[in-house]
User: Fold this.
Amino acid sequence: MEPLPRDCDDNYTEQWRHYRESGSVDARNDIVLAYMDLVKKIVLRFKGSYSNYGQLDDMINQGMIALIDAVEKFDPGMGNKFETFASLKIKGAVIDFMRKQDWIPRNQRSLVKELNAAYEALYTEHGREPAREEVAARMGVDAAQLDKILQKRHNAMVLSYEEAINEKMMTASPLLTEHKEADAPEAEILREELKQQLAEAVGGLGEKERLVVSLYYYEGLKLKEIASVMGITESRVSQIHSAAILKLRHKIDAYNKN
Assistant:
């Protein structure tokens, strides 16, 4: 008998054993139900990118389809946790769905790419993090206009950042790239390196940027709630968060090129 997934607690052990031995749809569904909260948790990371509950339901449905697929394809012998495997597939499915639905207009995505390119070019030229005014000048706008771009393109920037993170995580996963078990330690090292890079990148942010990132990603607060905590406007929170994401995205892109 194959070893049980390392992240399964005692409540789910019997379901996993039964499913692998029988292939029963009922056993599969029991496991899917046990991990439903994982789908909701991932979808809520994109809470600023949809405008109504219908869209939220659509994203959860896509996540559930990916979760079912993850349960059916998971191989404990590949040396990874089921939750890691499922999270990558769920997030990838949700991102693909959002891109196809075009909830974020193409012109917004184009402007975000231009913003990322301007930041990266300035960083390369000066060997340091560019000032807000330098980025604005490179884009042919003033600082106030740049702030408006950061505010209004917030959702597109979040999606762009999540895409970059998920892409790197997927390339580091032996479960998704069908590497053999012998490759698992190397993949684990890559994932740990990415986590370290993210931690260092967050540590290099300004005080307000670190706080917004922490409240948004780790505490799960909405922009409106963060604004209340910090005593500033929601639009200002959007600007701060977008500026932080711009810097984090640069770090991840630089790491991806290594």
About this structure: DSSP finds 14 helices and no strands in the chain. The longest helix spans residues 234-256.
